Protein: Regulatory protein MarR
Amino acid sequence: MFFLKELPTRETLERYHRRFPGMRPEVVMEALVLMKQGSLLIRRMDEYFAAHGLSQLRYLALVVIDREPDREEMTVTELASKLDVSKPVMTRTLKSLVDDGFLAVAADETDRRAKRVRLTGPGRDKLEAILPGYYETIQAAMQGLESDHA
Structure:
């Protein structure tokens, strides 16, 4: 998260530039604006997912499985490799999604030690219900970012 509510002024950045000539004020300002907008978007997304009984990670687990065009399932290891979380966090997340009926887990037929996960009907329904608002939230944030640069 980025916790700075008020970004530094151009004058402030120019003062730092005089002290640290390698610092480019326009680049730093652009980065700060991006960090602030990104943080605001993450907060909005967290609120949006919470209102729909999900977290960002629970949503990502569902959508990563769903976005595979030619597959309906993947191993837990494959899913974990696509998300930046520890194995215990992944395990707890998958358990909660299974408990809620959004995912089903089965043993891999070729490797009994491996587990395969797939979306259930309710899991697909959940994604169908939240994806429109998810994209609207992203688009609204981008419009705000574009107007900041206009």
The chain has two domains: 1-52, 53-140. The longest strand covers residues 103-107.
